[in-house]
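Hey team,

Filing this mostly as a record. A colleague (T.K.) asked me to run one chain through the structure pipeline before their review meeting, and I want the input and output archived in the tracker in case anyone asks later how it was produced. No errors, nothing strange. Just documentation.

Input sequence:
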Amino acid sequence: MKEQYSAYANSGAIVLFPCAMDEQEKQDVQHSVLFAQLAANKKFPLTADPDDWYSIWQQVLKGQWLQRRVEWSTVTPGPGIGFKAMDGMIGVLRPALAEAGDWVPILQAVAALPVTDPAIAFLQERIRQPASCEGADQINANQRHRFLVVVAQPGPRLSAAYVTLTSAAGAEGNPYARTFSADSLRGPLEQRFFQADLAAPLFDPVRDTLAKRLEPHVDLIKAIDFSQPDSVRCEPAG
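Output structure:
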């Protein structure tokens, strides 16, 4: 039987958990991902240029997580070739998660949500922003996107895909469903993959302190509520 998953919006990230995963492990992942985002946002806010947000996010995580695998690439789609946001994220994650269960359908379900869905509206505010360009007209015309998806596994282990790009402003809609054409992209897109295991000797001593520091920000973690396919639905316990 394939593993079933639940989905959360964690500030600007989508975080997936196996439904049977230990609750303490889930909290450790949520708090780690959120704290790293808050630190990166402070140094590189939405309008920062140049943007080195991902380096700070990864650096903060590596304080208590042991790196297993990293990959990175810079891609310039050729003429007539587009980049579909969620499909691209799935492509970054798939090689490391081939045996991890039905995580792909739930990400596809997120991409299928309407832009009016509360989770999409919440995430969109945190992943899409005007890019810094020369000239006021260009500032309004171009937008930078930061896409981050984290798939957690027992251990805990996290596998994260990050894509950042700048494009011409597009029609309003679910950004995870958008296809960015080569003509709309303003320069190459950057893809990153990071996989790490929690280092208990490093994390255990700071767990309670971290939870306390994040208390003012707990509203940035929200369950994504949608009608999931039977293959990915988490059934209530009992």
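Quick notes for T.K.: The two ends are 19 Å apart (CA to CA). Residues 7-223 form a domain with the Delta-endotoxin CytB fold (CATH 3.40.198.10).
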